Amino acid sequence: MTLHEKPACNGMGRVCRGLAPLEPTVSHSFSLLARRLLAVGPDGLSDEELAAVVLGGVRAGEGAIRRAARALVDLDRLVDGGGLVGSGADASGDELRLLAAVALGRRWIYRTLRRRRPRPSLGDAGEIYSWYGPLLAHQVQEHVYAIALDAKLRLITDQCVSIGTVTSCAADVRDVFRMAVRVAAFAVALVHNHPSGNAMPSPEDMCLTQHLEHAGSRLGIELVDHVIIGRGQYYSFRDERLVVCDEVEAGRNEMSGSVNPGS
Predict the structure, then answer these.
(1) Which has more confidence, 214 or 70?
(2) What angle do CA 134, 138, 141 make, to 5 degrees?
(3) 70 inside domain
(4) Lowest mean pLDDT: which of 26-30, 64-68, 107-111, 245-249?
(5) Domain annotation covers residue 151
(6) Are strands 143-149 and 155-163 parallel, antiparallel or unpaired?
């Protein structure tokens, strides 16, 4: 089985290459960091500096960078441990502010992409990952999205059909195809995230994919792919030849003018 590794990206097509963090013992005021942000842009600041700007209101001598670095470590531990959602976790105000800022930024990136490309082509796993990765890669619960595609494999609409827990999510095949039938989709794709960061499919993922492919063949709406998104990686059932969509392949060949061997 193949996991496709992807570099960290800001969702706008650029690879993020953060600068080395400043020495945590250095004290920086909020006003100084704000001026730097305006002068060099966010890509010119380290993670700790950006976090210090988000936290704001740092008192003189408190050590903005040290405070921000501590909050980032605590936030990583909280999220990676799956202890945030529904557990009454004892998170500090700094951690919650950073968490809210990250979520807001992720949503803003996704909305910006949608405005710029309202009808993207989602015919292969890499395109699906590029489109849904910014939305799903860092979710702390499993989210399952059904994607309705036209005959050219362009997005018609999508719908979140299920939100699960940190470790599992039960999607209903009927919900996927109810949406597809409503918009007269030519084909569908499914995408969901694994909060653990490991994109390898579970037995339940395998079973769901088989049910989707079987139901789609009976309805005449074929399953293009089921893509699982992890952190910096994705898994494609189609790339592993666990999903075969003959009608879509024929459509691709016709659109590209290619000839099948033996014809």
Answers:
(1) 214
(2) 120
(3) yes
(4) 26-30
(5) yes
(6) antiparallel
Of 79, 109, 139, which closes a domain?
109
Phi, psi of 192 (to 5 degrees): -150, 165
Residues 64 and 30: beta-carbon distance below 8 Å: yes
Q: What is the pLDDT of residue 53?
A: 81
Residue 263 neighbours by CB under 8 Å, 6+ apart: none
Tell me if 261 is assigned to some domain.
no
What is the per-residue pLDDT for 40? 86
Instruction: Describe the strand order of the beta sheet including 155-163 as a list of residue ranges.
Output: 4-5, 233-236, 222-229, 187-193, 143-149, 155-163
Q: Are both 148 and 247 inside the same structural domain? A: yes
Same domain, 38 and 161: no
- Domain containing 152 equals 119-256
Alpha-carbon distance of 128 to 122, in angstroms, equals: 5
Residue 43, helix vs strand vs coil: helix
Beta-sheet strands, E only, within 116-215:
143-149, 155-163, 187-193
CA dihedral defined by 7, 13, 15, 19, rounded to 10 degrees?
Answer: -140
Flag whether 262 is in a domain. no
The pair of three-digit structure tokens given for residue 255, joined into one six-digit string: 């659109």
